[in-house]
Amino acid sequence: MSQTLNVDLGLRSYPIHIGSGLLADPESYRPHVRGDRIMIVTNETVAPLYLDPLEQALSDYRVSRVVLPDGEQYKTMEVWNRIFDALLQERFGRDCTLVALGGGVIGDMAGFAAACYQRGVPFIQVPTTLLAQVDSSVGGKTGINHPAGKNMIGAFHQPLAVIADTDTLETLPQKELSAGLAEVLKYGFIRDAAFLAWLESHMAELLSRDPNALSHAIKRSCEIKALIVAEDELEAGQRALLNLGHTFGHAIEAGAGYGAWLHGEAVAVGTCMAANLSQRLGWLEDKDVERLRRLISCAGLPTEPPADLSPDQMLELMAVDKKVLDGKMRFVLLKELGEAIVTDEVDRDTLYATLADRRSL
Amino acid sequence: MSQTLNVDLGLRSYPIHIGSGLLADPESYRPHVRGDRIMIVTNETVAPLYLDPLEQALSDYRVSRVVLPDGEQYKTMEVWNRIFDALLQERFGRDCTLVALGGGVIGDMAGFAAACYQRGVPFIQVPTTLLAQVDSSVGGKTGINHPAGKNMIGAFHQPLAVIADTDTLETLPQKELSAGLAEVLKYGFIRDAAFLAWLESHMAELLSRDPNALSHAIKRSCEIKALIVAEDELEAGQRALLNLGHTFGHAIEAGAGYGAWLHGEAVAVGTCMAANLSQRLGWLEDKDVERLRRLISCAGLPTEPPADLSPDQMLELMAVDKKVLDGKMRFVLLKELGEAIVTDEVDRDTLYATLADRRSL
C-alpha cells in the first residue's frame, strides 16, 4: 500500500511515493530512470541492508555502485569527489541516473554530484531514514559541508522522484528515529497546530514505530514541505521557515564537530532556543515554550546545547551561517505554536540572553 | 569607445560590453553588482597587471580578493576550494558578487564557485585573454577538471555581465593570442563563411594586435556565440556545434598533462583532425582541408597532435569525454567551411585512420 504526493514545480515537478515495499519494487523506478546506466550512491551502514534488494529491483539496467563512509563528518569535498571518481572510472556519460540510497548525508552528496557531473545529470532519492523521508530528500537542496560551515557548497537540483519505503525505518537506530521526529515536529511548529496536537497524542506510537502512525506523520510532513517548496523553490521568501532551529542547530553541529551530534538532535535544541528567543520578544508564552520543550523531550531529543559550547562560540559559528545576509542575522522564530516568521530584528543582548540561558527541564 | 551585445536568455539575459578602457571604469560594474561585498577571483599572472585598477573601479564596495596559481593544471577541485576558503574566512553571505578577473581557467573556476557558494551567488566576468573574451566568458558554462577528464564537474551559471576590455590584450603573450584565435576561427568554420574570408585577409593585423581588427573579431565571435547560446542554453542540440575540435582537443590536453598545451592550441589541432575526418566521410574536399590547416597555421597554431600520443591513447581519452552519449562518440564535423553538424555515425576504422594520420604541412 502506498500513497503519492506531487511536488509541483512546473517542468521540474516530481512525485513522492510513500509506503511499504517500494524499495524492492521495479515499478517504483521504471517510470523515472533515464538512460540505461545507474550509479547507486550509498554508505557502509545502508549497503548491507538495502543494496541487494535495490540492485535486484534495477536489474533491467546496467548498475554500478559507490559506497561511502557513514556520517555527517564525511559530507566533505574529498568524499564527494569519490562519486566522480567512480562515475569516470566506469565511463558514465550524461545519459545516466544517479540513485541516492541512504539518509540525508547520502541524499545531499549524491544530489550535489548529480547537479555537477558533466554539468548536471538526473537522480532519484531513496531515503532510508525518517529525517530524509520527511525532509532532506524533498525540495532539491543538495550540498556538502565546509569546515567553516554546514551546507556552504551546494546546488538546487530537484530529483526525478522520491521513493520513501517505510519498511526501511524498521532497521533505523532509535536515536535516528528521534532525530527524524525533530523535523516532523518542525512542520507542526511552523505551520500546522492541528498536526502538532496529533503528534502530541501519538508520540508513543511513533516511537514504537507503529506503521500507520509513521505513515501519517511522513505524509503530512511531505505535504507541508511540498507546498512550501512549490511556492518558493529557491528560498527567496517563506521557504526559510523550514529552517526553524537550524541557525542555532548548525552552530551546534559545527561547534561539536560534524558527526558528534545528529542533525535532527541539533535542530531539536535549536528549536528550543528559537522558542526561548521568541518568548523574550514577547511572542510565545511560558506555557507554549514548556509545551514545545516537553514535546521535543518526549520524542527522545535533547533540549540543551552542549555545556562546553559557550555563548560566544555559538555567536561566532552562527555569524557564518547562510542565513546571515549583509551582516544581519536572520532568525526563524515562532509567533505562536503553528506559526513561524522570519526576522532580522533581534538585538544582540536578547540573542545573547538566549544563548546564555541553560535550563534543565 | 565600446559596443554592447546582449545574450538573450529571458530572466538570465545579460550584456557583453566590448571596448577600450572598460576594466578601470566604475560604470562598467555599477549597473550589475549585487550587494555591497565583492570577491575578486584572479591569478598570479593577472593580479600584478589588473588587480589595482579593478579594485579602484570598485572602490564603492567592500572588496576582497583571492589570487590562485595560473594555468590549466590548477583548474582542480583543490584549488577551486580555495575560493570557498576565502569567502568563508571573510564571512561572505549570499548578498555578494564574485568577479572573475583573468582567462578561461579563472572564469570557469570563479563561475563554478559562484554557482555553488551557498547554492548560488551572482558573478561578473572580466576576461583578460582573447580566448576568454570570444568564448569561455560567454554562455554560462563553468567547471573544473577531473584527472580523468576536462570540465567533468561543473554547472551552467550565467554571469550578470561580461566586461571585455580590449586593452588587456596588449599584455597577452603571443602564444595566448594565437590560442584565442583558434576559437575565433571556429566561429567562421562552423557558421560564417564570410567571417572566415575576413579572418583570412586580416590575419596579419590580428597577429599584430591592430585594435580595430581585434574589436571586430571579438564582436563577431560574441555575436555568433550569443545567438547559439540563446537558442540552446543547456546544449540540448546545436550548442554542441561550438565544440568543433574539442573532443580531439580535450584528449590532447588530458594526454599531454593539463597545462602542457593551451586549450586553444589543442582545439586548433582538434579542428584539423575534425576536418580530416570530415574529408574521409566525403564532406570536405582536399582544398578545404588545406585551406583550414593553412589558416590555423598562419594564426601561429599547431596542426598536429603530440608525436608521443598514440591513436590508442587518444581513443581511450576520447571515450570519457562528455560528448560521449550512451557509449557512442559524437563528433562535430564540417559539411563545408562555414557549416558544421553533429553526428554519431562515425565508424571506428575511419576514426582510427584520422587518429593515425600524422602529416606535416
End-to-end Cα distance of chain A, whole Å, is: 41 Å
Q: Which percent range fits the helix content of chain A?
A: 40-55%
Mean pLDDT of chain A: 95
**Number of domain units of chain A:** 2
CATH architecture of the largest domain in chain A: Up-down Bundle
CATH topology of the largest domain in chain A: Dehydroquinate synthase-like, alpha domain
Q: For this structure, what is the CATH homologous superfamily of the largest domain in chain A?
A: Dehydroquinate synthase-like - alpha domain
User: Radius of gyration of chain A from the CA trace?
Assistant: 20 Å
Which strand order spans the largest sheet of chain A, edge to edge or round the barrel? 1-2-9-6-5-3-4
What characteristic shape of chain A results from the CA principal axes? globular
